[in-house]
Design a protein that fits this description.
Order of helices and strands: HHHHH
Structural class: mainly alpha
Largest sheet: none
Helix content: 55-70%
Number of helices: 5
Radius of gyration: 16 Å
Shape: extended
Distance between the termini: 44 Å
């Protein structure tokens, strides 16, 4: 098989799409990096993984505080739309 089956798109392409969707949904704009890092940490916390183990996986203890918060008002806004 030669070539790619799917086109390789840049982070900038996905960030533009994500920005458009965030604006349409009326939620704060995030980048793909922030979105995936938050998801990774939130999923691990929901599974009961300790913050120390998550910090080891992310190589940064301060990222736990930055990405683990859940903005309940934003969630309510998205859910109620």
């Amino acid at each position: 098989m030669k070539g790619r089956v799917f086109p390789q798109l840049s982070d900038n392409y996905y960030n533009r799409l994500l920005k458009d969707y965030c604006v349409k949904a009326g939620v704060p704009v995030v980048t793909t990096h922030e979105f995936s890092r938050h998801s990774f940490i939130a999923q691990r916390q929901a599974l009961g993984v300790s913050n120390e183990l998550i910090a080891m996986a992310t190589d940064n203890l301060s990222s736990i505080d930055h990405y683990s918060h859940i903005d309940l008002e934003t969630m309510r806004t998205v859910i109620n739309k």
